[in-house]
Amino acid sequence: MPPPVLCERLGLRWTDRQQRRLRRFARVVHCLAALVPPPRIAPAMFLAYRNTRRPGTDPHTRRPLGATV
Given pLDDT bands bounded at 50, 70 and 90, which one contains residue 66? Predict the structure, then answer.
């Protein structure tokens, strides 16, 4: 549901029926997305991605926690 302030500013009305339809659509998209195979990427890119997003990695610098440069 759009935020109430946004609806008010734009003069939109959001009904319960629209909310149900949006949730139903989101469930369908979620189910269909699960059936699509993940994109294939180069092994080096996969390893770089995995190594920068594993636990113990600073999300801002993508380096091991406590590492200095």
Answer: low
> What is the number of residues in the chain?
69
Tokens 């699509």, located at residue: 36
Distance CA 13, CA 6 (A): 10
Residue-wise pLDDT tens digits, 35-49: 887 777 778 777 777
Kindly write down the DSSP assignment for every residue of 23-65, as one continuous string.
Answer: HHHHHHHHHHHHHSPPPP--HHHHHHHHHHSSTTB-TTT-SBT
Cα–Cα dist 68/58, whole Å: 11
